[in-house]
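user: Please review this fold.
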Amino acid sequence: MTNSFSIVLAQLNCTVGDIDGNTARIIDVCRRARDTLECKLVVFPELALTGYPPEDLLLRDDFILEVERGLERIGSEIEGVTAIIGHPFRDQSGLYNAASVFSEGRVMARYCKRELPNYSVFDEKRYFCPGNKPCVVEVDGVRLGITICEDIWHDGPVEESAAAGANLVVNLNASPFHMDKASERESQVVAQRARRNILPIAYVNLVGGQDELVFDGGSFVSDNKGKVTHRARFFEEQLFRVDFDDRLCPVQGNISKIPILEESVYQALVTGVRDYVQKNGFPGVVVGLSGGVDSALTLAIAVDALGADSVQAMLMPSRYTREISIEDAIAEIDALGVAHRIVDIEPLFEVFLQQLAPVFEGFQPDSTEENLQARIRGTLLMAVSNKTGAMVLATGNKSEMAVGYATLYGDMAGGFAAIKDVPKTLVYRLARYRNNKSKIIPERVLDRAPSAELAPDQEDQDTLPPYAVLDAILEAYIEHDKAVTDIVKEGLDADTVAGVVRRVKRNEFKRRQAAPGVRISQRAFGRDRRYPITSAFG
């Protein structure tokens, strides 16, 4: 073993499918690691060459051929540094989630991921074959054991690397964010694995947004006692060098703080919106602003993600819109410095009612007329989007989406839903968190009862339980799969629980048609929770 050793962990924001761009960035990072950071080894995240998750792109021959061309280019252009790079690898036996060790134009070793996750947002068994053996390679006198993401959560891969002579384990990750995930990775997984095997572990993670997933970075190094000695920043790209002493103990370095819950969720939402908009080439977004807390928070997220010049707000008052709602919306616009338009929907609403009067004859007014207003607003927002190219950012929260308190083709219209996975009670916490940074949401928006303002003196709690109660039921039923009887045993009213569950089940069809949105929980609507629309269960 040499007297000193160093590595660079490359915490990158890779774009799915941009193999040429990702290849160029990998080569550039290798040169920077060699020339600027004066390091001989750089480690990249899981599937860095393709971005994660590439999903059914992996089933295309032309995609895999482009991956192979990228690997050839990397091999020909990297000099004076060793790189461990995550990528798909295909041979006669199948397709693998792999990591190759490149040095001086050749592949020194290749490892194939052994533990393929197939739960929650992961679907790797659809695409990959599992590897079946450890990989230990010597670099600059140090024997490195290579593992990929899920491997470190299971007994076997690290232990077998240690048995094969590894004295340092590197773990390449595409680990998506959910609340409290960073602490879980460090204290419950990596620290225990390091202590058990008496080995330091270097953990490198992706960063950035990919559709509804957000990767939070937070790459770190643990010594052989499970103590974190280095931690990269969260939600930012970063290259950071880690030095080891002659006993291969990591020399204490910078340790970024793990953000508190509200900060981490807010940063995840900002990251998800920014990357969805920018990676898909939209020039900006348009937000329907009502004067309520959901749209106020969404507007703040959009501005923090994209800048005020890339955000426009639309106010679309009706006969039921309160004057204070308009005042509060204007105050938010002024505080954030965004452009806005006011389009009164009352004339359009009147025309709809007149044209439908013969059809509605004999029926009493109900939610139909309420939904008409929401659909008029959705039509106007989509028209602006079509004309300007700006994407509509939907403003609905998880509580509403769960029970169908949202109008299909109305306020659900949009290309992306920033707070789709944020329960209403957390919406308020995030709004107050953002206000602590700078006052942008009027206090009365946070204090007054929420209302859709689609009928006279309407409040959400006319038809829904109080949000604290609703969110408790939804968390138990959706995130923990608890039966109605078990939820009632927790002290919640049986009729209320049954009513909420009925609404969740009845509105599955709406959620299937909803825009994607940032995932912050372990059971988001979309990739996580796949329930049938037609079902007689329960």
